Amino acid sequence: MTRPGPTDPRDGPVPADDVLSIRGLSVGFAGFTVLDGIDLTVRAGELVCIVGESGSGKSLTALATMGLAPPGARIAADCLRFTGRDLLPLTERERQTLRGNEMAMIFQEPMTSLNPVMTVGEQIMEPLRQHRRMGARQARETALAMLSRVQVPAPEARFDQYPHQLSGGLRQRVMIAMALVCRPRLLIADEPTTALDVTIQAQILRLVDELRHEMGTSILFITHDLAVVSEIADRIAVIYAGRIVEEGTRDDIFDDPQHPYTLALFAALP
Ligand code: ADP
Ligand code: MG
Predict the structure, then answer these.
(1) Phi, psi (deg, nearest 5) at residue 49
(2) Is residue 65 in contact with ligand 1, taking CB distance under 6 Å?
(3) Which atom of ligand 1 is nearest to the CA of 62?
(4) In angstroms, rounded to a whole number, what is the distance separating the alpha carbons of residues 214 and 252?
(5) 139 C-alpha vs ligand 2 centroid, how far in Å?
(6) In angstroms, rounded to a whole number, what is the distance separating the alpha carbons of residues 233 and 231?
(7) Cα–Cα distance for residue pair 251/257, rounded to 1 Å
(8) ABC transporter domain location, by residue (predicted)?
(9) How far apart are CA 153 and CA 143, in angstroms?
(10) In Å, how far are 28, 169, 218, 243, 244 from 57, measured between CA atoms?
């Protein structure tokens, strides 16, 4: 059940200022379908939350969008466009030049996506060197400035440390610095606060929200946590068993949830 009106992604042609337009995205593995016709739009400057239970297909939606779906995944879509460009025909090499540059992703557990044998500084400089062709000095200055911007205390000292020397909250800040250092148009955040304690969670949410306004980055924020959604979402897409069952503004969904699954999500709130 998708709410009718101007936010319905199936209403007409894809508007030019959409950062991400997904229509009819299906992903399956041999013998079974996981995503079954996902429609999703992220407009310039928006923070859109995908909310749904574990196993509903949130991460796969993110990974398919990033061109990072696992081997064996069969992907089909009517439309998968990023800033007006059709992603489906792109080669792996072309996708790579978008990733970390114009579109970036952060994950639930930064330990799995930070390189354990590279220092914090090297990892934040990497996208600058690769995508911006920056020299060592400029990359270092830019990376240090980003590290301070994500409020890592004593950035000069942290710069030369390895991920295992940082707390979970600091590692997530480093991931955010890496993801945003090239000022991407879109950040996909896949449960980035789920592994953190509540106070750190709130700090990271506040930081993400500040940075998106500062940098003009649109965000697709994935979570199973309605409390998080109520904090930050402009628009919400509720996913259930591989389908978006309801979509609307935060007020639409919180004040007048329609789909039985959305109602069940609210009923389960403490
Ligand atoms: P969520 O992030 O909402 O918890 P996922 O997108 O990770 O859910 O996964 C949705 C479903 O897709 C899983 O329950 C699983 O059945 C299936 N799936 C994900 N990755 C694979 C894979 N590599 N091979 C087979 N099935 C997979
Ligand atoms: Mg997931």
Answers:
(1) -100, 135
(2) no
(3) 6
(4) 26
(5) 32
(6) 6
(7) 9
(8) 14-266
(9) 14
(10) 11, 26, 21, 8, 10
Helix (H) or strand (E) holding 19: strand 18-29
pTM: 0.93
pLDDT over 90 percentage in the chain: 86
Residue 81 backbone phi and psi in degrees, to 5: -120, 140
81: left (phi over 0), alpha (psi -120 to 50) or beta: beta
pLDDT tens track for 82-99: 999 999 999 999 999 999
Q: For the chain, percent helix, then strand, then coil, each to nearest 5?
A: 40, 25, 35
Q: How far is CA 267 from the centre of its chain?
A: 27
Separation of CA 117 and ligand 1 centre (Å): 29
- How many CB atoms are closer than 10 A to CB 97? 13
Is 55's C-beta closer than 6 angstroms to any atom of ligand 1? yes
Cα–Cα distance between 25 and 18 in angstroms, integer? 17
Which residue's alpha carbon is nearest to atom 22 within ligand 1?
A: 70
Q: Which atom of ligand 1 is nearest to the CA of 242?
A: 10
239 lines ligand 1 (CB under 6 A): no
Whether 262 contacts 52, CB under 8 Å: no
The ipTM of this complex is 0.98
